[in-house]
Specification:
With about 110 residues, the protein is an alpha+beta fold. It has one domain. It is about 25% helix and about 40% strand. The chain contains 3 helices and 6 strands; from the N terminus they run αββαββαββ. Strands 3-4-2-1-5-6 form a 6-stranded antiparallel sheet, with helices on one face. A hairpin with a 2-residue loop joins strand 1 and strand 2 (about 40-50). It is globular.
Length: about 110
Amino acid sequence: MWIGEFKVWHKGSLFIDLWKKYDIHAYSMYLNNFEEKGEPYVMREAVIWGGDAKKAINFIATWPNAKITYAEKNRVIFSVKALGAFHTTVLGGQVFLVKPIIEEYGWQW
């Protein structure tokens, strides 16, 4: 078994749009994946902080590919359409996420 730490960026990410607009930091975790009407989705939990945290959560609520399941203060649980190349790698059977993902400055750590 290998344990690695990666710094990644992927096109079409909700968080990239958030970083472009708002002063925020976040950590997030993948909760599960599922299909709805034949389309793959991932469910994530994020804790967002920074000067624009509330604005960022409101942005998630209006982002076309996101659906908020739960939101309280700076914590939000939401689903997004899975981006094939990225999410299928992260959620593959050979990959285990042992820590939350830190998201800031346009990157995920």
